[in-house]
Amino acid sequence: MNSHTPQPIVKQSSPLKSYLSLVWKILLPIAIGLTVVGWLFHNEFSPEVWISITWDSHLVWCIILAWALMLGRDFGLSWRFRAITDRRLRWSQAIKVNLLCEFTSCVTPSAVGGSAMGLVFMNREGIELGRATTLMMTTLFLDELFFVISLPIIMLIAPYGDLFGFGSSAFSTGLQTTFWIVYGILVAYTALLFTGILLKPRAIHRLINKIFSLRWLARWRTKADQMGANIVATGVELRTRPLRWWAETFCATALSWSSRYLVFNALFLGLVPTADQLIVFIRQFVVWVVLMASPTPGGSGVSEWLFATYYGDLIPTAGLALIIALFWRVISYYIYLIIGACIVPSWIRKSFKKQSSTR
């Protein structure tokens, strides 16, 4: 018998292929966003608008404040990663996980987001995969809970008409319809997570399995069963957590989202100081809920168009609205694509080295 029997060749993803995929995922959302911005500028922008902007110390400080608030958002999420891992992640590791998650959010459809990859990033930083899955579901629950709780508070402090604007226009009607559909899904999903995590995880697991035993859903049965098992595991751990732990993680969540919203306020304070800052702030809630339904990577294209239209009643000209939208996307979106392009290649190389050493 020939002792040198050929072994089957196992195809593996190469680092070069991973880099090319990364470049494509970075360029696609940039291309979509710039195409929409270019189209909007072609139709609405006038050079006189840019010339009319007074670049004084007030505007410069407002732009600096916008950047500082975005750092506040990153601090809040990094703080949350530290808190949910019981300080097992160092600050440097928590910041890296946060930036990697944000980059993933930028290159995937908004409905997918970066949270799903959070468990992989935490695992690479030394958190066991099973525990990382539990923690990922915790962050997902906290984000959805923040959105669900925010709406009743917003309704108490702002008139309904100010929330959506434009009266009975087609845009306002479509915006409201999309918002309430997505918000309803969020409420149902949050209720499912709350029941599954804190009340009756095993009952939810059985319900999920029963639903996905239907013939037309059977192809996702295995994944659904795994999700149910993750809910049970998450519930076992989280039901033992003290109130102080919940308060800290939710405060970190609220800080991160509020800081993200306030970036808009800083830009309006510098470029449209006469705008109602409360309305500017609360409309951000609507923007981010609607963007959850965006099919484009990171909401690129949809975000720029939505902002320029939605905030049009607060801004003197459409051209100025486009300038603010561009500032907003650079600070809250494109910067994370650049940061991700810098840190993801080294993360990929380390992942390949770790996989090679374990073989």
Structure description:
This protein has helices at residues 15-44, 47-52, 57-84, 91-107, 115-124, 129-157, 160-164, 170-199, 201-211, 221-238, 243-271, 277-291, 302-310, 318-357. Helix 11 (243-271) crosses helix 12 (277-291). With 359 residues, it is mainly α. 33% of the residues are buried. The protein contains 14 helices and no strands.
Short characterization:
It is built from 14 helices and no strands. It has helices at 15-44, 47-52, 57-84, 91-107, 115-124, 129-157, 160-164, 170-199, 201-211, 221-238, 243-271, 277-291, 302-310, 318-357.
Which descriptors would you attach to this protein?
single chain; 359 residues; mainly alpha; globular
Q: How are the elements arranged and paired?
A:
Blueprint lengths: L14 H30 L2 H6 L4 H28 L6 H17 L7 H10 L4 H29 L2 H5 L5 H30 L1 H11 L9 H18 L4 H29 L5 H15 L10 H9 L7 H40 L2
Helix pairs in contact: 1-13, 1-14, 3-4, 3-11, 4-5, 4-14, 5-6, 6-8, 6-10, 6-11, 8-9, 8-10, 9-10, 11-12, 11-14, 13-14
